[in-house]
Design goal:
Blueprint: E1 2-4, H1 6-12, H2 14-27, E2 31-33, E3 45-47, H3 49-68, E4 73-75, E5 81-82, H4 84-90, H5 92-95, E6 97-102, E7 109-111, E8 126-127, H6 131-145, E9 150-152, E10 155-157, E11 159-161, E12 166-169, E13 179-182, E14 200-203, E15 207-209, H7 215-228, H8 232-239, H9 241-245, H10 250-257, H11 260-272, E16 276-279, H12 285-289, H13 291-298, E17 304-313, E18 328-338, H14 343-360, E19 368-372, E20 384-392, E21 395-406, H15 408-417, E22 423-425, E23 437-439, E24 442-449, H16 450-461, E25 462-468, E26 474-480, E27 491-495, H17 502-515, E28 520-522, H18 528-537, E29 542-546, H19 548-553, E30 555-560, E31 566-570, H20 571-583
Parallel strand pairs: 4-17, 27-28, 27-29
Antiparallel strand pairs: 1-25, 2-3, 5-16, 6-7, 6-14, 8-10, 9-10, 11-12, 12-13, 15-16, 17-18, 18-24, 19-20, 20-21, 21-24, 22-23, 25-26, 29-30, 30-31
Helix pairs in contact: 1-2, 3-16, 4-15, 7-11, 10-11
The protein binds glycyl-adenosine-5'-phosphate.
Residues 282, 284, 314, 316, 325-326, 329, 331, 333, 398-401, 447-449, 451-452 line the site of glycyl-adenosine-5'-phosphate.
Length: 584
């Protein structure tokens, strides 16, 4: 039997393994495209019967490891909509945005910070989807930019990066540019075009409105009143005198610049601000906001952690690789509050804990690694940060961030809320030598993606094995080697035939397993080989088969998914055997 590793298979044909996984997820009910019958909603996914079980198991394992089994970590379950000031304090409302750019030719929209940056002096070829499009785009460029690019199949040539701030058009064999344009040093990712719009900031948080009155009604009433008057600026000044007088307010700035478009937008923002709320873009902030309540109600003492898992929402510009990056996803995060000065040792502790957790459930431990963030990559307040990365079929990428966040978050919420967020240690003297020591704890934050974890464990588990059938033909066995604790169904109970009391015996065994909290499924359709194959494909670690001998001596066969080996055990031993293997 030839065990083909998913990693080696993906190394040869990466797109295909993802394609197979995505197809399996749909056909066996792990993950569906959201609203598929209406044409689907890009970047949103629904977890089917098996996916829902797998996600619950995975998140349950995280909760067990991070909360239940630790004396100094507690869990919370906070609301998704929080006070809007939370996001102003955390910096998300102002800074949680990506610089967005549009290509003026292809209309491709992308993130400027992720765009390719060709070397100074290099050619800037625009690679069009095909020859026909190349002709259209060359025409557009001639009309918009006044240059005739050379067509070389589907590639448009003649552009070159002159410096970090300028690119130009060089006619064939010319040394000097015929025409130059300013640029920001990057091209569009898909086609390599340097003809780009200005960068725009785009807040990634989803907005909504709270309250009994629809803010759009108010917006339309006020806007129609304002625009009905001859002098819009004067009308706005009269309607919003405070905002117009405040030099820092967006209305006053728009009035100063005499920018009609920005003025109308500022008016809309001002009207909607009081009812504006956001869907949380991370689960983390609730742990800082509820720090005092948790501390006071639980009698905790640093070092201690507050954990939470659940949905987060980000209006991502680029959604990619199936559920890897989506707009609605789940996170598993913990804020670990420790004494200032001890953050380094806690960082190494949590790094080790988290890596152990990931590797515990994986077939290939070498597909996980740490990557330390460079100074230029870290938030200004962080004093260290690592990503746990996974070797996805398209390359190494982030699974979890572990950040040493100092006391930044508590300080920010203290400043914005006016509530003191500190720990008073009666037994210790502070840096001034006096007791008690009052301090804001420093924080280590392991922040993992749950839906991304689900994808990683599916990739790790996906195997195809070649084997010969009895008639000598080669067939492919697809097997999801999911860790038994993650597997949606732990055990399938299969009567060999639908008669002779076998179904009844099988149902008896199922009843015992369900009573013991083991998710077991009864399956009697199709030949036994087909049933094994079906359960291999969805990752069921064990199959119990009731056959003729069962009725004679009370034994069944227990088949292992990965080895396909079968052993005979007494019915009375089935539950204990499965339990012991799950707990191993
Ligand atoms: N509180 C810190 C925080 O949220 P992050 O690196 O932005 O940090 C943590 O997110 C983890 O959440 C990531 O490592 C990733 O696994 C997951 N994640 C972030 N954005 C995601 C998205 N759009 N889709 C799926 N998972 C995402």
């Amino acid at each position: 039997m030839n065990d083909v590793r998913p990693e080696s298979a993906t190394a040869k044909r990466p797109a295909e393994v993802m394609k197979k996984l995505v197809a399996l997820c749909k056909s066996r009910g792990f993950v569906f495209q959201s609203s598929e019958i209406y044409g689907g909603l890009k970047s949103a996914y629904d977890y089917g019967p098996l996916g829902a079980e797998l996600k619950r198991n995975l998140m349950g394992e995280w909760w067990r490891d991070m909360v239940t089994t630790r004396e100094n970590v507690v869990g919370i379950d906070a609301s998704i909509i929080m006070h809007p000031d939370v996001w102003r304090a955390s910096g998300h409302a102002a800074g949680f945005s990506d610089p967005l750019v549009d290509c003026k030719i292809s209309k491709e929209r992308f993130r400027a910070d992720k765009a390719p940056r060709p070397a100074v002096g290099s050619e800037l070829p625009i690679t069009c989807p095909d020859k026909g499009v190349a002709k259209d785009w060359a025409d557009q460029i001639r009309k918009q930019f006044g240059v005739e690019l050379e067509r070389d199949g589907n590639v448009l040539r003649g552009l070159r990066a002159i410096s970090a701030t300028e690119f130009g058009f060089f006619a064939r064999a010319a040394n000097a540019p015929e025409k130059t344009w300013p640029w920001r040093g990057y091209v569009s990712p898909l086609f390599g075009s340097p003809f780009l719009s200005e960068e725009r900031q785009f807040n990634l948080m989803f907005r909504t409105a709270l309250g009994a009155v629809d803010p759009m009604q108010e917006v339309s009433t006020i806007l129609s009143e304002l625009t009905a008057q001859g002098d819009l600026n004067a009308a706005v000044r009269a309607r919003f005198p405070g905002e117009a007088a405040d030099a820092e307010h967006m209305i006053s700035k728009a009035l100063r610049d005499n920018d009609r478009g920005r003025l109308l937008r500022s008016v809309i923002e001002t009207i909607t601000l009081p009812t504006m709320a956001y869907l949380r873009p991370e689960t983390a902030q609730a742990m800082f906001v509820q720090f005092k309540n948790v501390l006071d109600s639980q009698g905790l003492k640093p070092p201690f952690g507050i954990a939470q898992m659940g949905k987060s929402f980000r209006n991502e510009v680029t959604v990619e690789h199936f559920i890897f990056r989506s707009c609605e996803f789940e996170q598993m995060e913990m804020e670990f509050f420790c004494e200032p000065g001890t953050q380094r040792e806690w960082m190494s502790y949590w790094k080790e804990q988290r890596m152990n957790w990931w590797q515990r459930y994986a077939n290939y431990k070498e597909d996980f690694r740490f990557r330390q963030h460079g100074k230029d990559e870290m938030a200004f307040y962080a004093d260290d940060c690592y990503d746990v990365e996974y070797k996805y079929p398209w390359g190494w990428g982030e699974l979890e961030g572990i950040a040493s966040r100092t006391d930044y978050d508590l300080s920010q919420h203290e400043k914005h809320s006016g509530v003191t967020l500190q720990y008073v240690d009666q037994e210790k003297a502070g840096p001034d030598g006096k007791k008690p020591w009052k301090y804001k704890p420093f924080v280590i934050e392991p922040a993992a993606g749950a839906t991304r974890a689900l994808l990683c464990f599916l990739i790790d588990a996906y195997h195809e094995e070649e084997r010969r059938t009895a008639s000598g033909e080669v067939e492919i066995r697809t097997v999801l080697k999911l860790h038994p604790r993650l597997a949606p169904i732990k055990c399938a109970v299969l009567p060999l035939v639908r008669k002779d009391g076998m179904p009844e015996k099988a149902r008896e065994i199922i009843g015992q397993m369900l009573k013991a909290g083991i998710n077991a499924k009864y399956d009697e359709k199709h030949a036994i080989g087909k049933r094994y194959a079906r359960h291999d494909e969805i990752g069921t670690p064990w199959c119990v088969t009731i056959d003729g001998q069962t009725l004679l001596d009370g034994t069944v066969t227990l088949r292992d998914r990965d080895t396909t080996q079968q052993v005979r055990i007494l019915i009375a031993e089935v539950v204990a055997t499965i339990r012991a293997r799950l707990d191993a």
